[in-house]
Amino acid sequence: MTAYLSLFGVSFLAATLIPFYSEVALVGLLATGHDPWLLWLSASTGNTLGAVVNWALGRYLLHFEYSRWFPFKISQLHRYQNWYQRFGVWSLLLSWLPAGGDALTFIAGMMKVRLSIFMILVAVGKSLRYALIIALSDQIL
Question: What is the model's pTM?
Fold first, then answer.
């Protein structure tokens, strides 16, 4: 049980703006014989809920966009928002990407994407990634 909770925690942190790599933990636990189904469920759930933290931060921090300490320049913020509007909510299916995926979830919060739609699209993308890693690991291990 500890392994699955640990993977949940690592996957949760990996989905936030904190740099973590849940794939390494997942493959390591697969190699030690843990149940792939429970590993997939733990990693997918943790990573999706971690993305919700980014969404909430995006919603909350937008109120401070004109503060000096705001992490983005206004010009950057508008560029990101324009990009997001161009590709739309479906871009959340790419939230699993190592580069830019976490930013997508943050921007979705800024763009006030409904949480229900956000969670469905992010969960699909992240769950498919973990399923692919498990399938590929089965070929390697």
Answer: 0.87
CA distance 42 to 26: 10
pLDDT, tens digit, for every residue of 82-114? Answer: 878 888 899 999 999 887 788 889 889 988 999
Helices (H) and strands (E) in the chain, counts: 6, 0
User: Of 9, 1, 15, which Cα lies nearest the Cα of 127?
Assistant: 15
Residue type, 131: A
Return the amino acid letter for 38: L
Encode pLDDT of 37-66 as tens digits: 999 999 999 999 999 999 999 998 877 777
- The C-alpha atoms of residue 72 and residue 1 are separated, in whole angstroms, by 40
